[in-house]
Amino acid sequence: MLEYNELKHILHSIEYSINNLENSLDKYRKCLPESEKLEIIAQIQKYNDIQNKIEKLTVKMEATAN
User: Fold this and answer.
1) I need a labelling partner for 6 at 20 to 30 A (CA). Which of 24, 34, 50, 63 fits?
2) DSSP label at 9?
3) What is the predicted pLDDT for the residue at 26?
4) What is the CA radius of gyration of the chain?
5) Helix (H), strand (E), coil (C) string for the chain
6) How high is the pLDDT of residue 37?
7) Which residues lie closer than 8 Å to 2 by C-beta, 6 or more apart?
8) Angle, to 10 degrees, between the axis of helix 4-28 and the axis of helix 34-65?
9) What pLDDT, on the 0 to 100 scale, is given for residue 62?
């Protein structure tokens, strides 16, 4: 099982990726084809789902550590 610090690092990386995707979508929204917009939105949702799972796991790990 991954260590708590590794999970926190992964969580930070995911948050960074989400921010980059959202910024790209905002910046290029007008010139991107609809299919690419939808693909970016799907990626953001996938990262959000993973982020939520990791956050739940880290909260559980914090609770058992205390």
Assistant:
1) 24
2) H
3) 93
4) 15
5) CCCHHHHHHHHHHHHHHHHHHHHHHHHHCCCCCHHHHHHHHHHHHHHHHHHHHHHHHHHHHHHHHC
6) 93
7) 10
8) 160
9) 86
Collapsing DSSP to helix, strand or coil, 3 comes out as coil
> Which amino acid appears at position 58 of this protein?
T
Tokens of 24: 């790209």
List the structure tokens of 25. Answer: 């979508």
pLDDT at 17: 94
Tokens of 29: 């929204």
Residue whose token pair is 């789902």? 49
Structure tokens at 28: 């290029």
For residue range 12-52, what is the model confidence (pLDDT) as tens digits? 999 999 999 999 999 998 999 999 999 999 999 999 999 99
